Amino acid sequence: YTAEHEQAPSYREMADALGLKDIKNIYEHVQRLEQKGCLSRTHRKRRSVELRSIEEVDDVPVYGKVAAGLPLDIAAEVERIVTIPDGLFRVRPDFLLQVSGDSMGDIGIYDGDLAGVKRTRSPQPGQIVVARVDVDEMSRVERAECGLNNTGITLNRSAVSGSKMLLKSENKAKGYAPLVVRPERVRIEGRFVGLVRSG
Fold first, then answer.
1. Is 136 exposed, middle or buried, given 0-12, 13-18 or 19+ CB atoms closer than 10 A?
2. What confidence score (pLDDT) does residue 118 get?
3. 61 near 95, Cβ under 8 Å?
4. The pTM is what?
């Protein structure tokens, strides 16, 4: 935007470009990026945000898509490599997955985004995780209970309800029901640590 218009975008223009209604979110992101040294700004001056030179230091593999919704199969091989700048992620991701679907839209994870994933087998309840749901090992009753037909991976918030694991969406407008599965039918591939916005 700065290169094309010879001035920095306003907070409203940033929000519009990212599909956000509230500029408060933009202001908070700008503050965090300023603290990380990714940009600078003159306080109380409009259109003063400037990118700082960031050395690109890390290549991260992309392993296909992850469903923000019903599970998808994951690619076994690296699809491509993405170079990310130092400081973009607080925790360095081990790999990236392209988000497919809208079930995590309320927390700003959109279709087409690249989700950063840190490998772990034991996330904390409430964390957003990439989970492989093994439908092939389920009984017909289990499949009916969780509403799944295919084995695959999904990006959801993890929770526990009695002896079951819940994989919950974050899209109140769509009202997606959580996936309810026995823990032995789920393998956690990692936890979500941030994203790279597409386009």
1. exposed
2. 94
3. yes
4. 0.67
CA pair distance 149, 176, nearest whole angstrom: 16
Question: Angle at which helices 11-18 and 23-35 pack, to 10 degrees?
Answer: 100
Q: 124 CB contacts (<8 Å, ≥6 apart)?
A: none
How far apart are the two ends of the chain, measured CA to CA in Å? 13
Beta strand 128-133 with 114-118 is: unpaired
Q: Give yes or no for a contact between 132 and 189, defined as CB atoms under 8 angstroms apart.
A: yes
- The answer to whether 60 and 82 have CB atoms below 8 angstroms apart is yes
Instruction: List Cα–Cα distances, 25 to 12, 114, 165, 198, in angstroms.
Output: 11, 20, 31, 18
Give the pLDDT band of residue 199 (cuts 50, 70, 90): low
Distance CA(198)–CA(112), nearest Å, equals 6
Q: What is the CA radius of gyration of the chain?
A: 19
Instruction: Give DSSP secondary structure letters for 38-103.
Output: SEE--TT-TT--EEPP--EEEEEEEEEEEESSS-B---SS--EEEEEETTS-SS--SEEEEEESST
